[in-house]
Design brief:
This protein is mostly helical and about 160 residues long. It contains 7 helices and no strands. The chain has helices at about 5, 10-20, 20-25, 30-60, 65-70, 75-115, 145-165. Helix 4 runs antiparallel to helix 6.
């Protein structure tokens, strides 16, 4: 990684990048990896957004996309750095998920074999709590009161048109 780029990171961003070293990632469980993945994705999205906004505003000033490319290099480099860090964490999440899947599969196979042979069943985890009953939503919300009202009105117009035939 470019040392100048690493020096331009904030302390929180440096800690985030340092938290993705191989030794650190090996010590994390699946939930912690997913949390780290989400935080890195947020930071990456921030710099991609900053780069795109800066690049689009510089096009008019520079006279074209090619001329404005050199500007806003720092945000572009940071977005690329966090993209590579995100890829590293994504691979570790996949490995952890695969490991958990294989463990769960072996436990299920072992429980099925035990049940088939008549041996008492081995329980490794508490049973799931009973599902809570939720009331179905009566209205569909799509984006606010104004948009919902517009959608309802359009539906009413369509129905009125059909009814008048």
């Amino acid at each position: 990684m470019n040392q100048g780029l690493l020096n331009s990171l904030t302390e929180a961003e440096r800690m985030l990048v340092a938290g993705t070293e191989r030794d650190v990632l090996k010590g994390l469980d699946e939930d912690e990896l997913l949390d780290l993945h989400q935080r890195i994705r947020r930071v990456r999205t921030k710099y991609v957004k900053n780069y795109r906004r800066g690049a689009s505003s510089a096009v008019a000033e520079a006279g074209g996309r090619g001329m404005s490319y050199a500007r806003n290099q720092r945000d572009r480099d940071k977005a690329e750095l966090f993209e590579s860090v995100l890829a590293r964490v994504s691979r570790e999440v996949a490995v952890a998920a695969n490991r958990a899947s294989m463990q769960l599969r072996s436990e299920r196979i072992e429980a099925a074999r035990a049940a088939k042979s008549g041996a008492p069943e081995m329980r490794t985890a508490d049973p799931l709590p009973p599902p809570t009953v939720t009331r179905a939503r009566t209205t569909k919300t799509t984006g606010g009161l104004k948009k919902d009202a517009s959608t309802k009105a359009a539906g009413a117009r369509r129905q009125a048109k059909r009814d008048s035939r």
